[in-house]
Write a structure and sequence with these properties.
Order of helices and strands: EHEHEHEHEHEHEHEHH
Strand content: 15-25%
Mean pLDDT: 93
Structural class: alpha/beta
CATH architecture: Alpha-Beta Barrel
Number of strands: 8
Largest sheet: 8 strands, parallel, barrel
Distance between the termini: 27 Å
Strand order of the largest sheet: 1-2-3-4-5-6-7-8
Low-confidence stretches: 6-12
Helix content: 25-40%
CATH class: Alpha Beta
């Protein structure tokens, strides 16, 4: 499945900004599955979901994928795994998101195939983004744009990098880091193709309502 990140379209054909959900740092699987189903069923612009389970045993990651991947498939949402191309291949994910220490795009492509969606963390670096694009990444991710409690932030980015990339490359860009319905508008205006969000959805009393709040803010 190739749902979320098609890098061969021109900017004149650019789609409206969409959501890229990232799992919370820790979660109960049954509880999170219900929250994910609600978020995907809300009717908002969710294009992708990333399972991010830093430090979890491989078996636990695969067990979570076995439960969550079918939910994404049912809603035509791309399912990506964080960091591990080998586990992405093992669970049948649509792709993988690579940090700067998680191996090369070329190696991930060999494992996952031509149709896999492969994204790369580029922090606030134009150089890293150029390298990722030249390596064949399907998208580049910039951030963090705002303070976030989801993970430790060592790098910050500003909206101008989104505008620069949008003018330069047809490869989609993802904005990440502390994004909420209240602060997302400048990122959309600067050219973000996707907003990667976690806490703003999963810590909300109603994940479905949070997704719809993003949809309203992004219009």
């Amino acid at each position: 499945m190739s749902v979320a990140f098609e890098g061969d379209f021109g900017r004149e054909e650019r789609l409206p900004c969409q959501l890229y959900l990232i799992s919370p740092p820790t979660f109960g699987l049954a509880f999170h599955a219900r929250a994910l189903e609600a978020a995907l069923a809300a009717g908002g612009p969710v294009a992708a979901y990333q399972l991010r389970m830093k430090g979890a045993p491989d078996a636990e990651v695969l067990r979570a994928a076995q439960t969550l991947l079918p939910l994404c498939q049912a809603h035509d949402v791309a399912f990506l795994l964080n960091d591990r191309a080998d586990l992405a291949a093992a669970c049948g994910a649509d792709g993988v998101h690579l940090g700067q220490e998680d191996g090369s795009v070329a190696d991930a492509r060999r494992l996952l195939g031509h149709d896999a969606q492969i994204g790369v963390t580029c922090h606030g670096s134009r150089h890293l983004a150029m390298e990722a694009g030249e390596a064949g990444a399907n998208y580049v991710a910039f951030g963090a744009f705002f303070a976030t409690g989801t993970k430790a932030v060592a790098h910050r980015a500003t909206p101008d990098i989104l505008a620069w990339w949008t003018a330069l490359s047809p490869i989609p860009c993802v904005a990440i880091g502390g994004i909420t319905p209240e602060n997302c508008r400048p990122l959309v205006a600067a050219g973000a193709d996707f907003l990667a969000v976690s806490a703003a959805v999963w810590t909300a009393p109603d994940p479905a309502a949070a997704v719809l709040a993003f949809a309203q803010a992004m219009r």
